[in-house]
Write a structure and sequence with these properties.
With 182 residues, the chain is mainly α. The protein is built from seven helices and four strands, in the order αααββββαααα. It has helices at residues 2-13, 16-41, 45-49, 78-92, 102-117, 119-166, 170-180; strands spanning 56-58, 61-63, 66-68, 71-73. It has a two-stranded antiparallel sheet. Strands 2-3 form a two-stranded antiparallel ribbon. The radius of gyration is 29 Å and the shape is elongated.
Length: 182
């Protein structure tokens, strides 16, 4: 509230063109702050920094009595995380950013960067992400399978009912009906 009031006071001192540019900049700042706070609230540390995590883990593979792996592909390097953090920190820092919640977003940014640059915490976070992804995928597979089972049971019950109603003529009628369909 205090930051918003000081921004409004600054706006009154500006001419029309400066006021328009300051309001546009504040709008951009608010958009960045909202994105960071939303991702932070959801616990998505990679999204807070605006990084896509395409990490893939293969293995471990067992050949005879030897274990190879696990092999990790496309892992975001700590150096890249630090670079992105520095650039975003400059943008979101409360002294630079005019949005009222810039300080809150800056703390969320610091916390996410701390987690992703510390190797132990990052491994724990990645492990949680992978387990959540597996649960979500398993739920999707289970939903599809239950839908298929339900469709199959409905089809089977329809065929049974048709066989009861039509008696010995059910097979030829079903075959002719299937052939007649386009």
């Amino acid at each position: 509230l205090k930051r918003e009031a000081s921004f409004e006071a600054e706006l009154k001192k500006m001419n029309e063109d400066q006021r328009k540019r300051a309001q546009q900049q504040k709008k951009k700042d608010a958009k960045i702050v909202n994105r960071i706070l939303k991702a932070s609230k959801a616990g998505k540390h990679y999204s807070v920094l605006g990084i896509r995590n395409f990490e893939v883990q293969l293995g471990p593979f067992y050949v005879f009595n030897f274990s190879i792996g696990p092999i990790v592909l496309f892992r975001v390097k700590t150096k890249a995380i630090k670079r992105v953090y520095r650039n975003l920190a400059r943008t979101v820092h409360p002294d630079k950013n005019k949005d009222g919640r810039a300080e809150e977003a800056f703390h969320a940014l610091e916390q996410s960067a701390a987690i992703l640059t510390d190797e132990k915490q990052r491994q724990e976070f990645d492990r949680k992400l992978i387990s959540a992804r597996r649960r979500r995928n398993q739920y999707a597979v289970d939903s599809v399978m239950s839908g298929c089972q339900m469709a199959w049971s409905q089809t089977a019950s329809t065929f049974k009912m048709t066989k009861k109603v039509l008696g010995p003529f059910s097979t030829p009628i079903l075959v002719l009906g299937a052939l007649a369909m386009p």
